[in-house]
Write a structure and sequence with these properties.
Length: about 260
């Protein structure tokens, strides 16, 4: 199977069925493209992706294999050619930025209180100046924990404007070091196991702040503010890891995780 960047409503392969896809996009995290953890996504050049898309199969070598046109005639694809950069440079485009008014006191944003896609943000409580002690560990994340583990993409993207709703995907892709499973952690209040967001919400409801313990390179991935906003929203006080990611794998120039 071949794919372009992004996610799609895939129906040709059942979830859990092993398969391979290729893409020219470097978002090849587990489950990123089709939400199937058994899909192996390999990154290759745009030229090769196009060639195999035309062929319709990964069992195709454009260097030696032939294709058949609508008239039954055999042909081979020509080697790709062209300039890597435009001769006259890139069009800078039109500057459409509108600066906000200097006095914003009269500006209001109307959002329906019943919307499940948009929600106004409210300031978080300021630090009270006191040290936090005896905090429970919500989850000890095993291994690499990217923004796709912290705030999974796919169908969740429709809630990007609603912090409370999208927080239901918080750390559901992270592997729990205790049991090697995703989205199954112990609730210290009940002794039972539940989804990560559910346990976090239970702690929050009972006024309990919590921390996350991670491994290395925490937060690698796209500059997704939700990877930082969701833990804070659900009562997280600190993320304790061996190292945080310093790279951004998309066009944005900042990150929040």
């Amino acid at each position: 199977m071949l794919t372009l960047p992004g996610q799609w409503d895939r129906r040709d392969v059942k979830k859990g069925e092993p398969n391979s896809i290729i893409s020219s996009y470097n978002r090849n995290f587990t489950g990123r493209n089709d939400a199937n953890p058994a899909t192996h996504s390999f990154v290759t050049s745009p030229d090769l992706v196009v060639a195999m898309t035309i062929a319709g199969t990964l069992n195709f070598n454009p260097l030696v294999d032939e294709l058949t046109d609508s008239n039954g005639k055999k042909f081979k694809l020509k080697e790709p050619s062209g300039q890597g950069l435009p001769t006259n440079g890139y069009d800078p485009g039109q500057d459409t930025y509108q600066a906000p008014p200097k006095d914003r006191s009269s500006v209001s944003v109307a959002v329906s209180p019943t919307s499940d896609r948009l929600q106004l943000l409210h300031p978080f409580d300021a630090w009270n100046g006191k040290d936090a002690t005896d905090l429970p560990i919500l989850i000890k994340a095993q291994g690499k924990t990217t923004t796709d583990h912290i705030s999974m993409a796919g169908p969740w993207l429709k809630y990007r404007g609603h912090l409370d709703n999208i927080s239901n995907n918080m750390l559901i892709g992270a592997i729990n070091a205790e049991n090697g499973e995703a989205n199954k952690i112990k609730n210290n209040l009940t002794g039972g196991y539940d989804a990560v967001p559910a346990v976090a919400r239970d702690y929050k409801k009972n006024g309990i702040k919590w921390v996350v313990v991670g491994d290395w390179n925490y937060g690698e991935g796209s500059s997704r503010e939700h990877a930082a906003l969701e833990p804070r929203h659900l009562g997280g006080l600190a993320i304790i890891v061996r190292s945080f990611a310093r790279i951004v794998s998309c066009s944005a120039s900042h990150r929040h995780a």
